[in-house]
Queue: 2 jobs
Job 1
Amino acid sequence: MDSRPILNRSLAEFGETIFAEMSALATATGAINLGQGFPDTDGPASIAQAAVDAILSGQNQYPPGLGIEPLRIAIAEHQRRFYGLDFDPDSEVLVTAGATEAIAAALLGLCEPGDEVITLEPYYDSYAACIAMAGARRRIVTLTPPDYSVDLDAFADAIGPRTRLLLINSPHNPTGHVLSQVEREGIARLANEHDLIVVTDEVYEHLVFDGEHVPLASLPGMRARTVTISSAGKMFSFTGWKIGWVCAPPPLLDAVRTAKQYLTFVNGAPFQPAIAHALSLDDDYFVDYLEGMRSRRDRFCDGLKDVGFDVFVPMGTYFVTADIRGFGTDDGRAFCLSLPERCGVVAVPNEVFYDNVDAGRHLIRFAFCKRPEVLDEAITRLGRMSQ
Ligand code: PMP
Ligand code: GLN
């Protein structure tokens, strides 16, 4: 035990997540928390009531391994309603403990040691950790501001004999980039040509302000090779419930399910019927959610520009990346650590989402899924700092 670190060495580079670190800082300092991405207003009361009803009516024991049937049917109907995709609720839909578990189970179920996984940088932090836990290696394709579009030549160059799967995220956290038709088709062409599995994280599918969300599974040749992941946390503003899902053809779904069984087995019994209800809400809910977030994006991005940040206005998600160099520094981590004391606001440094740390050093991310008055107050505080 002496000669070797306690922590599994494949996890050596992964300390506490930036979200936990920055939310703790916000709590300790009383700062406005625009770091971790969670809304400060819960989703519709009818969804919360459905969970209360489920608890009181005794839906509190282990649900079935795939998830309860009404939720699997609702997930399949949602895919049909918004994208015309057909998934069989009995063999092609799996409920998971948030998208986080879906990502972990997909990587653990599909990768072997030595496999390579290609993903876009900056990347959501759990991707790197889950690739490492699967014993695989990550190959990175860097997205660069201001438009953060995918360099398809770099993507093609990253593919090699050990490439097992492409791990894609659109709308993309933290940049807010939404894949264009050219990018989608380019990625699909490469996946088809090289016969690769694609795991696509689409948790922000209902938060596209510019462009449109087109699931990768809907492109020619992609349905049979794609594992699609989404989550009720972002869609309905109940991030703490941790209900996510996977849609995939049976061989891929079975692989993900095999790993998932030994991670959580099952989760969230009373929340499952509540999310089945949520997915059946009419289109107005989804339109209002998007438009409410769009006005926050515009209000907050304008405010950030006014106080001196260079802002990369996101096409989707509820995150915005800002360049801090106008404040005389390029050290985003130090900037974020000092921000609560300087002005009572918390943001996260984008460098933690990069292998190539220098590419993200001068960038920080704000979450704008907060009440308008909270966003205004944050801008006022940030403005005081710049004087
Ligand atoms: N993927 C992305 C891109 C995310 O931003 C998040 C955070 N919500 C997740 C996955 C994890 O989602 P969940 O909270 O459902 O586990
Ligand atoms: N997805 C959220 C974000 O990017 C946070 C989730 C988490 O705390 N792991 O901020």
Note: DSSP finds 14 helices and 13 strands in the chain.
Job 2
Amino acid sequence: MAVARRPDAGSLCDSWLLSLNAMVSRTPLMPAITVDPCTFALFGALGDLALRKLFPALYQLDRAGLLHADTRILALARDPGDEGGHLAFIDEHLRRHVPAREIDEEVLQRFRARLSFLRMDFRDAQSYVALAERVGAGPTLIAYFATPASVYGMICQHLAAVGLAEHARVVLEKPIGHDLASSRVVNEAVAQYFPESRVYRIDHYLGKETVQNLIALRFANSLFETQWNQHHISHVEITVAETVGIEGRWGYFDQAGQLRDMVQNHLLQLLCLIAMDPPSNLTADSIRDEKVKVLKALAPITPELLGQRVVRGQYAAGIAGGRAVPGYLEEENSNAQSSTETFVALRADICNWRWSGVPFYLRTGKRMAQKLSQIVIHFKEPPFYIFAPEQRSLISNRLIIRLQPDEGISLQVMTKEQGLDKGMHLRSGPLQLNFSETYKSARIPDAYERLLLEVMQGNQNLFVRRDEVEYAWQWCDQLIDGWTRLGDSLKLYPAGSWGPVASIALITRDGRSWYGDL
Ligand code: BG6
């Protein structure tokens, strides 16, 4: 799998690429994946998530030969109408959400043959009798809940009543509750019928290829591990910026806000993967134990610190993607009084030996200047400085991990500018690995493809354990309580920008700036 050397090879950058390629080619070939058959029952099969993400992911698994010949997919929803109509609707969406070049008519036919629709009211016990008949004595049942979390417990109870819970796995979509108390209610209700070992809580960021690469990058390269602490790292940035607005999800989003929708799960998971200690092996619980330790070590952001450490924003009208877009309060079905945040920037501190004194700056928002998810690790300056004083500000190594788009990893290093007239002029340049360019032949799978495959294989590594969800809520709850108590005001930002000015002040106050903001 070595990548051809570029004709202009010879630079430092190439040697980096070549060494990585060498590492790739030395890795023994993985055994071919074998996936057991299952009956995949999708609750909420006509909802947005199922149509946009889950059916396309199942189709891609089929296309990659990763669905067992006996795997069946049951689409479950309570919508009236005949089976044929619903299947045609699913088909139509599949074609819309899978790139045309990846539509293979033969695979599509096979996929359709696996798929059936059952109309059922999730609250009605009789519906589950019909479901049990349809499932029969088939292989392992995987019940995927693409429904509100408030009905997870009830579905589990009904599944158990008709004898379907015994060996089944349940997959729970986020958000699990809207605070610690409500998440406990949901988790408790599910736990009455399913042991933790058969519960798969989705955080789709954990299925992203580059997010999984964080584990490889950190623990397969001793180069980084020795540097990965407060002696060598000055601070860490995690940015998850979106250009989309609310996209018809006002009802849900206005109750949640960006902190609950993105920070409580995706951003804290990324923070955990960056900050955790090396697990002793790759089993799900070893990794999750380490993540939990990080969550437990997060310093609370007390009301006294809120003003300095957290910024809540809401987008106003502006220009995004070259067109005028409305503000949050002017979106369809909006409530003009809403004070829900669409942006959060905060400074988190981890109280342990490894990270003491290393701030983690997190920011995420809707309708921002660019779609960008990126982690930047800023290394400390050298302990003693020997170059021209005016170049001092240049000196700092950064490791940039780009999650999306243009997945890749880049290490900013200092080199000397070339040329007789340049003396010891320094410049910062990247040693980079761009996944899509370097591994051209390999398609980067969508996060849901990976996650569904892992559920089918009974592997919980990429799923969130109950205590992780609950510790993450606990930390967010104290922040939200502070906001409520102080009546924290929202800072407006124009759509298409990098967020409120206050979010720049949040980091410049510490003598730093957000990396790469234009
Ligand atoms: C979801 C949030 O979990 O993640 C959405 O509910 C958000 O509000 C989405 O838009 C972002 O996911 P991605 O994969 O597009 O970064």
Note: The CA atoms of residues 31 and 457 lie 14 Å apart.
